[in-house]
Design goal:
Elements: E1 4-13, E2 20-24, E3 37-39, E4 47-54, E5 59-62, H1 68-72, E6 78-82, E7 102-105, E8 111-120, E9 125-130, E10 138-142, E11 148-152, E12 155-158
Parallel strand pairs: 7-12
Antiparallel strand pairs: 1-2, 1-6, 2-5, 3-4, 4-5, 7-8, 8-9, 9-10, 11-12
Length: 164
């Protein structure tokens, strides 16, 4: 499991006090409330200390970047958060943790493949599944109760429609 996960992208400055608009890639901007640091790299080696975070806008100010000019240097940068700073509810997983998880047909118990990608669709997430064979079967499964019966890091159980 990756320790540092993408949080979003820093956008244009907002005002003159170093506040940056923030394009949050999490379920909601509120998810990151209370995070003390974001990182400029996926390994957590370049921390930025959060001075102010406004999920309602969303926007952010970092210590040492409290003016428009210095904050502008961070524009268009992707930032990561440390999963250890956040506590998830029981049974909730990060989408990144599902990559590589086996997928089973709920009726037959047959393994149909592995999750290769989780897409944030317009109405719901979509699991892209591959059987792992070059030129083999691939599935795009909407993450809705009708198709996805259970989700865990041990396996995802799905109900496939006829002809899929």
């Amino acid at each position: 499991m990756k320790r540092f996960l993408e949080a979003g992208r820093l956008c244009s400055p907002r005002g003159v006090k170093g506040e940056l608009r923030f394009e949050c890639w999490c379920d909601s901007p509120e998810f990151l409330e209370g995070v003390k640091h974001l990182y400029l790299d996926r390994n957590g080696e370049k921390p930025l200390k959060v001075k102010l975070y406004r999920p309602s806008i969303p926007s952010i100010v970092f210590e040492g970047y409290e003016d428009k000019n210095s904050a502008s240097a961070l524009t268009s940068r992707t930032v990561w958060f440390d999963r250890e700073e956040l506590e998830l509810e029981e049974g909730v997983l990060f989408n990144d943790d599902l990559i590589g998880v086996p997928v089973f047909d709920d009726e037959t118990n047959e393994k149909i493949g592995f999750i290769t990608e989780v897409i944030d669709g317009a109405r719901h997430y979509i699991y892209n599944v591959s059987d792992g064979v070059e030129g083999g079967r691939r599935y795009s499964i909407p993450v809705v109760d009708e198709f996805v019966k259970s989700v865990s890091v041990e396996g995802v159980r799905v109900s496939l429609i006829e002809g899929l």
